[in-house]
Fold this sequence. Notes:
Strand content: 35-45%
Helix content: 10-25%
Low-confidence stretches: none
Radius of gyration: 23 Å
Distance between the termini: 19 Å
Amino acid sequence: xxxxxxxxxxxxxxxxxxxxxxxxxxxxxxxxxxxxxxxxxxxxxxxxxxxxxxxxxxxxxxxxxxxxxxxxxxxxxxxxxxxxxxxxxxxxxxxxxxxxxxxxxxxxxxxxxxxxxxxxxxxxxxxxxxxxxxxxxxxxxxxxxxxxxxxxxxxxxxxxxxxxxxxxxxxxxxxxxxxxxxxxxxxxxxxxxxxxxxxxxxxxxxxxxxxxxxxxxxxxxxxxxxxxxxxxxxxxxxxxxxxxxxxxxxxxxxxxxxxxxxxxxxxxxxxxxxxxxxxxxxxxxxxxxxxxxxxxxxxxxxxxxxxxxx
Length: 310
């Protein structure tokens, strides 16, 4: 069994627990995920099965999109609802325009300091491990990109003013490595009132959305019925990569990681250039390898990740 599963991760499960569940359900050890979701968050979690696990390193750079809720007036140790209260500000009145103006300052390239409750490593230790021991260490800021950030809805006690406990539902598109809870924390700090992430759902991970996603319950039912249509082909992971069919005579070279020449390419859907990356397929459409076009005194296609046995 090889392919991609677009899973709707339920809140309360870790990404690792989802992987473990699917390993048992599908009776295979080769299962991995491309992009962790915190246990308290739900939404799109892309799972790779079988040979598709070799694609993970090419999928972790996906941009992501989230729907999130930020609660004003209370900052926590984990920057979300699961942490201890660190700061409470009750006496403030903020207009929606002030909120929108501050949030607009976080669009584009920004710097974030990773939260202590994160999987970032410092000197070989995960930050969340150190936090559990009561240790706080200095973290270096990281550059991330917020390509879209806008307010969807505001829940507040007063019609035109945000006060303590007001909740803001917003949409954000961002680069890999962005912490939405840190975004909430930093917006709250900029407003001078404190804030934390109170809800998070990932609605897109690269090309994967809710349109072709399955809950664990629906996957379980399908497996029990012998239906594996939830399993997407490996090519779905990188839809922008051209799919090139090769001559059967070149398959053995690909199996051993050796380059092939343009004459070995039988079905090329578009003009290729140096550094282009492609799927190399056999005549039946099965994925043999990922390849890259290179110049070696003439154009060649060099396998960079092989999926067939040598």
